[in-house]
Amino acid sequence: MGRAPCCDKANVKKGPWSPEEDSKLKAYIEQNGTGGNWIALPQRIGLKRCGKSCRLRWLNYLRPNIKHGGFSEEEDNIICSLYVSIGSRWSIIAAQLPGRTDNDIKNYWNTRLKKKLLGKQRKQQEAQAHKANNNTMIKQELTERHTDNNLVLMNQTANPPLSTLYQTTCASSSIQEPYDVNNLRNPLYECDPFFFPQDQLFPVINDCSTSKNVFEGFQVQNLLPSNNDLMSQMGCNVNTTLQKDGFQSYSGGGVMESSSTGTTSTESSSWADLSFFLNYSPDNMVSKYQEIMMPQEYVNAFQEPSFFGCNNISSVHDMV
DNA sequence: AAATACGTCAACCGCGATCTT
DNA sequence: AAAGATCGCGGTTGACGTATT
User: Fold this and answer.
1) CA A115 – C1' C10 distance (Å)?
2) What's the average model confidence in pLDDT over A202-213?
3) Which of A18, A46, A221, A256 is geometrically suited to a Cys-Cys bond with A237, CB 3.0 to 4.6 A?
């Protein structure tokens, strides 16, 4: 047989707590602890409340060092980063923010932070749509340039579509194996399809959490000839230097743009696009992104077997 | 000034996991 | 082993305050 019912549902008080109830509960727990049994607690104290209600009141309001409101930018960033990597697991997120409760963070996200991000997402989508026509033409030109350089198209068609599988014959290339550039997906898509559409790489999170270019200091050995105009038209914020070996090297390379206020915002693009334009393995870009943007504990959570339903998402191939 | 819309957040509800009998 | 209580969590609700019409 099981236990007796926890409380008489008809005889417990609901709704807001009075100051008297608060002080009774607080005084008792501070002196005696919870005793590991919330259900028995209200009876011991003489409160006409359900044990669950007492637990909630203590955890969310009465326990020491609770902070309410006034979230700092750093806290915003942590919440956003964790939401991106683990979703709405508020208790885990709260554990990273001393003094904050899961309830507070959940409320804050639902009422403010989400809207803040949505506004930015909308702006980015408008800007992206504006560039769509240009991009099509530039992609075509870059396809031809790749063909002219070291890329060997697997199906050997004269004018291949971007979806064609391709591989490089150049030993210095970071691309290790053929991959389908158009079938790569945003690794955050499963996390929140609404915020991170499948065809986008850079999550909006970059925008709010940091102005750091995700590819800052990321030297890309680009096999394309110097082509600053094309790169800047694509919104790639690149600095180029001529290497000793004669190749043009691009540092930076994240898809960035400067706003009129002088701050930097991140535009959405895709792994496939960046990989294609920078001639860099998408696998390496994923790990570089994680290394720069995500603290190790978040990466670990990101790579939990259960997260995307696969064992390790450090490889883009696992996500497609 | 009154009515309505909107934003916030404490508290409740229900569910799955775990524990106790 | 099974039944049912308890815990902990995330989603949702509704009261309340503020802004707008």
Assistant:
1) 19
2) 29
3) A256
> Tokens 């005084």 belong to which residue?
A27
A43 touches strand C (CB under 7 A): no
Residue with CA nearest C1' of nucleotide C14? A15
Q: Taking a C-beta distance cutoff of 8 angstroms, is the pair A267, A257 a contact?
A: yes
Q: What is the pLDDT averaged over residues A217-245?
A: 30
The one-letter amino acid code at A108 reads Y
| φ/ψ of residue A61, rounded to 5 | -140, -45
**Which residues fall inside 7 Å of strand B, measured at CB?**
A 1-3, 13-17, 52-53, 56-57, 60-61, 68-69, 103-104, 106-108, 110-112, 115
Mind listing the pLDDT tens digit for each residue in A239-286?
333 222 222 223 333 322 222 222 222 222 333 333 433 334 444 444
Which residue gives the smallest C-alpha to C1' distance to C4?
A2
Residue carrying structure tokens 């930097």: A264
> Would the Cβ of A4 be found within 7 angstroms of any atom in strand C?
yes
Chain B positions within 7 A of any protein Cβ atom are 7-14, 20-21
Q: Where are the beta strands (DSSP E) in A160-259?
A: 166-168, 220-221, 236-242, 248-258
Å: A221 CA to B19 C1': 58
Task: Say yes or no: Cβ of A12 under 7 A from any atom of strand C.
Answer: no
d(CA A208, CA A73): 9
Relative orientation angle of helices A271-278 and A282-293, to the nearest 10 degrees: 110
H or E segment to which residue A299 belongs? helix A296-302
Taking the C-alpha atoms of residue A192 and residue A25, their distance in angstroms, rounded to an integer, is 39
User: What whole-number distance in Å separates Cα of residue A174 and Cα of residue A255?
Assistant: 20
* Ordered domains of chain A (ranges, CATH): 9-62 (1.10.10.60), 121-319 (no CATH)
* Cβ(A276)–Cβ(A135) below 8 Å: no
